[in-house]
Amino acid sequence: MTSATELPQGSVAASAQHVIKKYGAGDTEVQALRDVSIDFHAGQFTAIMGPSGSGKSTLMHCLAGLDDASSGVVRIGDVTLEGLSDKEVTRLRRDRIGFVFQAFNLVPTLTARENITLPLDIAGRALDQEWFDTVVDRLGLRDRLTHRPSELSGGQQQRVACARALVGRPDIIFGDEPTGNLDSRSSSEVLSILRAAVDEFGQTVVIVTHDPRAASYADRVVFLADGQLVHELHKPKADDVFAVMRGLGEDEGN
Ligand SMILES: Nc1ncnc2c1ncn2[C@@H]1O[C@H](COP(=O)(O)OP(=O)(O)OP(=O)(O)O)[C@@H](O)[C@H]1O
Known about the structure:
Layout: E1 12-23, E2 30-41, E3 45-49, H1 56-63, E4 71-76, E5 79-80, H2 86-96, E6 97-101, H3 112-123, H4 129-138, H5 154-167, E7 172-176, H6 184-199, E8 205-208, H7 212-215, E9 220-225, E10 228-234, H8 238-247
Helix pairs in contact: 3-5, 4-5, 5-6
Bound molecules: adenosine-5'-triphosphate.
Protein name: ABC transporter ATP-binding protein
Keywords: ATP-binding, Nucleotide-binding, Transport
Organism: Gordonia phosphorivorans
């Protein structure tokens, strides 16, 4: 199978070193990340978990260049985000990062095909038809390509969002609660696709999730509490993830 990424397996696809993120100042200051250091290796599927307010979204947003760290170093591949202009960060996001959001974020007036190729069209990059076909067939979207989002189920819409993230062969795909709006069957479908993106396409995937079952698809689960990394599991079962979450004070797993 063709590899989606130029990065060699095991190299670092994204990294945060001593990242601190503060919001506000003075009495209202919140330290959302307190000296977080973590590497995300190419060809791995990582889930970020932790109680509400522990800093998961902040960490993902800093890694993806959607927000600036207050201090510390963030890298995507070999590029350090600090010091890049807004335009350069936008280009880096466009060229090296794929996103899958909870809310799908598809353009309602465009067909599935047009939504999938939109980032390439915006970037003025040529479509690799063979790769497009591979992704579309693997995701079971061949007979849905002319449909608009309103004519697709939630699970199908999220599969289109996964295809959109994959088709540009990014260094890394970030998912912000990608199964948050899906029923359990569609969740399983989307998680299997993200798993396959890693196993079959050599992709690197990082998701934020509250769901221990979703996290059990990952190679590695990292836990944040109060802005710090506090625990990590490798190839965990959902029960193991649930037990750690309980210990961190999230007894409902959400
Ligand atoms: N734009 C902001 N301004 C001020 N405080 C913020 C901002 N964004 C996040 N925070 C604070 O930073 C901390 C971490 O928030 P973050 O959204 O990263 O947590 P989370 O683990 O993703 O939470 P959840 O699971 O509820 O989505 C929280 O205390 C939050 O209130």
